[in-house]
Structure to design on (282 residues):
């Protein structure tokens, strides 16, 4: 049995545009069934989706049992207007709108809340993250509201400050967590928040010519250093490949991520269990 703690069933690992086109006039259930079949062939029996804007993961949740998969979804990503997240989600500008989105996610069958805290890695300059990030006071508020509504929070965060802010605000998992620092590793062990490092998203870009391979290797090296110290301090690390992202195939991507972690001597067992118990099915 394998866990995929971070995937996007909507994506085909080739083209974001084609992936959106496929479902924009309604969920293409034949495509979703095929994706789930591939996952089942790869012995995946737990799949936590990272969300999408066309309710494809919500549909997958209703189909997945046919394939023996325990499927969890946030339905869509919640992000601050103008910040990263519009590719997969819905935006809020104030707390009233935010609460509205939480209730909408609940109505559509969400199991938890997915929040975009920061942007992604800026592949052109070391340590930098694209766009703006939600401030610490606001993070505390949005996590509190999600928890009050009965949801755990899965947080997309990159950059040491952003990761630390999300950890201190009480999210239950950090997705990606690239460009961490020493303190980040310590905080992971203190807060008992799971780290889903999604190394395959970066590893599988190497050699594609899309980005400088040296930069990609450097991103992985920096994460590796602090991932290993977090592990040593007792942090929970889970296996999530971000499958569906460019060159991270459904099924194969999950195997890739298990391979990445095993190469580092990390057993994701405890982290995976924590994710399945914390991000409860509703
Ligand atoms: Zn993702």
């Amino acid at each position: 049995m394998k866990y995929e703690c971070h995937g996007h069933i909507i994506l085909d690992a080739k083209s974001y545009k084609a992936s959106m086109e496929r479902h924009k006039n309604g969920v293409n259930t034949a495509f979703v069934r095929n994706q789930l079949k591939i996952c089942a062939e790869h012995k995946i029996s737990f799949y936590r989706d990272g969300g999408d804007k066309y309710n494809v993961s919500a549909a997958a949740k209703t189909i997945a049992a046919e394939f023996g998969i325990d499927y969890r979804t946030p339905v869509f990503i919640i992000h601050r207007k103008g910040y990263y997240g519009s590719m997969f989600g819905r935006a809020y500008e104030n707390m009233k709108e935010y609460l509205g989105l939480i209730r909408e996610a609940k109505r559509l069958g969400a199991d938890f809340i997915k929040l975009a805290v920061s942007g992604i890695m800026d592949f052109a300059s070391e340590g930098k993250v694209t766009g703006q990030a939600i401030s610490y006071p606001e993070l505390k508020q949005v996590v509190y509201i999600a928890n009050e509504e009965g949801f755990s929070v899965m947080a997309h965060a990159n950059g040491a400050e952003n990761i630390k802010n999300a950890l201190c605000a009480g999210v239950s998992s950090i997705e990606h967590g690239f460009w961490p620092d020493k303190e980040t590793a310590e905080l992971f062990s203190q807060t008992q928040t799971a780290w889903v490092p999604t190394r395959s998203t970066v590893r599988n870009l190497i050699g594609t010519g899309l980005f400088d391979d040296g930069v990609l290797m450097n991103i992985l090296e920096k994460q590796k250093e602090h991932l290993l110290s977090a592990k040593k301090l007792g942090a929970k690390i889970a296996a999530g490949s971000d499958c569906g992202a460019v060159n991270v195939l459904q099924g194969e991507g999950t195997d890739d991520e298990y391979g990445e972690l095993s190469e580092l001597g990390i057993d994701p067992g405890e982290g995976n269990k924590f994710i399945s118990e914390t991000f409860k099915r509703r």
